[in-house]
Specification:
The complex is a heterodimer. By secondary structure, chain A is an alpha/beta fold. Chain A is about 40% helix and about 10% strand. Chain A has three domains: about 20-245, NADH-ubiquinone oxidoreductase 51kDa subunit (Rossmann fold, 3-Layer(aba) Sandwich); about 255-335, Ubiquitin-like (UB roll), CATH 3.10.20; about 340-445, NADH-ubiquinone oxidoreductase 51kDa subunit, iron-sulphur binding domain (de novo design (two linked rop proteins)). Chain A has a five-stranded mixed β-sheet with strand order 6-5-9-7-8, with helices on one face. Chain A has a four-stranded parallel β-sheet with strand order 3-2-1-4, with helices on both faces. Chain B is about 40% helix and about 10% strand. The two termini of chain B are about 30 Å apart. Chain B is elongated. The chains are: A alpha/beta, B mainly alpha.
Chain lengths: ~450, ~180
């Protein structure tokens, strides 16, 4: 199943669609270098803002823009920043969440690889806005091979006096530290990330207190996703009204969606909020590959409920997707085709969450394990109707009962699949087999050494 | 990828069989790393990465060496070493082959790729070939979903859009 390389090609906007904002940087030659970035006016916004604008002004622009966190939670960014107590004598910290681990999501990797200086410019502006003099970029361990490029950008910016002491000649210091993780999905959860950054296991914390008040080392801390931070320079340069030229009233701006599955052009697409899901899949991702039919779509990363083939008209904005029963989440759009067994897919997802659970909360730790056991039994053809009822009940008991969203993330897909594909569960119970399962067929062939198209 | 309290419990760190100490150069590097953080304990992850680079895996003695440099408790370092999946707690081969098998890659045939690798290398998941060349692991989402199936060797750049021929060529290239 090899498919054409869709990585890091030129950004193409379908006719009639709005151009991207962040991805616009990629058209500039060598934009990952300081020289290439400066050629498109890079760091000028930060230089001017750190000199001429007050931090509160920057917070106001971000608030007015309606920017919401792009990592998955979608919390209003300006509001989060405003929670930082200005009068606190404690040092403030900015943390960039580059722990991208939500299955189906691969956008931050492209941003970090292709336009690291835009991220650093966003870091400068955001740190200044919240009063932080030190920013940590927490990058997942598996991205170790991206660190040299990122460190190179940091070093270039430092040498040019844009970062570090007296950043961009402003008199304001911003030190950037790149901190490598070591393999833990949970460290993408902001409070678990902070524990990890402090040198501990990645266990989430109770909130309140919120990180903006008591975060890293007990100090006021803002944690934001790469895509969120990388949007800030554009907001400060062009203003909130400009940004609201994209998207909808309640969901202004753009969102990068990572599309995967049996589509012709998997990849990252920065779209205007409000674009119908069908347009993302057809116009941007080239529609389904020949011989594959769409069965379902997970619109926002593996943690969100599934959308059915009858919901493709759903506009991709926060309120519409929520009304349709799912969430924008990280924007990791996973296309499920008709060769996929829904029970098997549910098992795959459940195994993921059980693996990644930090173990702190009983509902997530034990419930996740129990759901996996049941789904495995169903998939092995040994399941009963009681199993289906138990699965629904357990998932329902995990929801809302864990310290962090991982528990919900484990439960929601299961409930969604049970609701949308009850026939497949029934079929597993009555026949002991999947209705269809391309994956299993391929595995069985591979085990026997038979040729199999991967 | 974290190890839950409920799953594979009882991680006993292996003993290296001899005391381990960072070189003077490494100690200097660690001191510089610690100085970048407001609190030294934040350097546990970078220190463990360095320990793994030097000694191949995180043993009891490696934990002790890190704890000494950072002036933190052994148990705190051990707690971190056993939480994060990229720290090897057992000896591994020269090339640790990590194949993503989470949902998107699974849709693209990653599981069949793993079966192929098991057959070809003659090992089960988690095992190392007798010649010490390859260890085979399944890992969770590597953020390469649009270009799956994907395989990461150690901490290097991903090998994407794999099919059986491509993975065979990759193995041939890894001595």
């Amino acid at each position: 199943m090899s498919h054409p390389l869709g990585v890091y090609g030129p950004v193409v906007t379908p006719p009639g669609r709005k151009p991207p904002i962040l991805f616009g940087d990629f058209a500039a030659p060598a934009v990952e270098t300081l020289e290439g970035f400066r050629a498109i006016g890079g760091y000028e916004t930060a230089r001017a803002a750190l000199k001429d604008r007050k931090p509160e002004e920057i917070i106001e622009i971000v608030k007015a823009s309606g920017l919401r966190g792009r990592g998955g939670a979608g919390f209003p960014t300006g509001l989060k920043w405003s929670f930082v107590p200005k009068a606190s004598p404690k040092p403030k910290y900015l943390v960039v969440n580059a722990d991208e681990s939500e299955p189906g999501t691969f956008k931050d990797r492209e941003l970090i690889s292709r336009s690291p200086h835009r991220l650093l410019e966003g870091v400068l502006l955001s740190a200044y806005a919240i009063g932080a003099h030190q920013a940590f970029i927490y990058i997942r361990g598996e991205f170790a091979f991206l660190v040299p490029g990122l460190e190179r950008a940091v070093a270039e910016a430092q040498r040019a006096g844009l970062l570090g002491k007296n950043a961009a000649g402003s008199g304001y210091d911003v030190d950037v530290v790149v901190h490598l993780g070591a393999g833990a999905y949970i460290c993408g959860e902001e409070t678990a990330l902070l524990d990890s950054l402090e040198g501990k296991r990645g266990n989430p914390r109770t909130k309140p207190p919120f990180p903006a008040v008591e975060g890293l080392y007990g100090c006021p801390t803002v944690v934001n996703n790469v895509e969120t931070i990388q949007t800030v320079p554009f907001l400060v340069k062009n203003g909130a009204a400009w940004y609201r030229g994209w998207g909808t009233e309640k969901s202004p701006g753009t969102k990068i969606f990572s599309v995967s599955g049996m589509v012709n052009r998997p990849g990252n697409y920065e779209i205007e909020f409000g674009l119908p899901l069908s347009a993302l899949l057809e116009e941007y991702a080239g529609g389904m590959r020949a011989g594959y039919r769409l069965k379902a779509v997970i619109p926002g990363g593996s943690s969100v409920p599934w959308l059915g083939a009858d919901q493709l008209a759903t506009p991709l904005d926060f309120e519409s997707v929520q009304a349709a029963g799912s969430f924008i989440g990280s924007g990791g759009a996973i296309v499920i085709d008709d060769g996929v067994c829904a029970v098997d897919a549910g098992l795959n997802l459940t195994k993921f969450y059980r693996h990644e659970s930090c173990g702190k909360c009983t509902p997530c730790r034990e419930g996740g394990r129990w759901m996996e056991v049941i789904l495995q039994r169903l998939e092995d053809g040994q399941g009963s109707r009681r199993d289906i009822a138990d699965l629904k009940s357990i998932a329902g008991q995990i929801l809302g009962r864990s310290l962090c969203a991982l528990g919900d993330a484990a439960a929601m897909p299961v409930l969604s699949i049970l609701e949308k594909f009850p026939d497949e569960f029934e079929h597993h119970v009555t026949t002991g087999k999947c209705v269809v399962n391309r994956r299993r067929t391929a595995v069985e062939r591979a085990r026997k050494g038979e040729p199999v198209l991967v | 990828m974290a190890v839950t309290g409920g799953a594979a419990v009882g991680h006993k760190l292996l003993s290296a069989g001899r005391p381990l100490e960072f070189s003077a150069e490494d100690k200097q590097a660690l001191a510089a790393i610690q100085a970048r953080y407001p609190e030294r304990a934040s350097a546990v992850l970078p220190a463990l990465w360095l320990a793994q680079k030097r000694w191949g895996l995180i043993s009891q003695e490696a934990v002790a060496a890190v704890a000494r440099e950072l002036e933190v408790a052994d148990t705190d370092v051990a707690a971190v070493a056993t939480f994060y999946t990229m720290f090897h707690l057992e000896p591994v081969g020269r090339h640790v082959l990590q194949v993503c098998c989470t949902i998107s890659c699974s849709l693209m045939g990653a599981d069949a790729l793993v079966e192929h690798l098991k057959r070809k290398l003659g090992i089960e998941l988690g095992q190392t070939t007798p010649d010490g060349r390859f260890t085979l692991k399944k890992v969770e989402c590597l953020a390469s979903c649009g270009t799956g199936p994907v395989l990461q060797v150690n901490e290097q750049k991903f090998h994407e859009c794999l099919d059986l021929e491509a993975v065979d060529r990759l193995l041939d290239s890894l001595t």
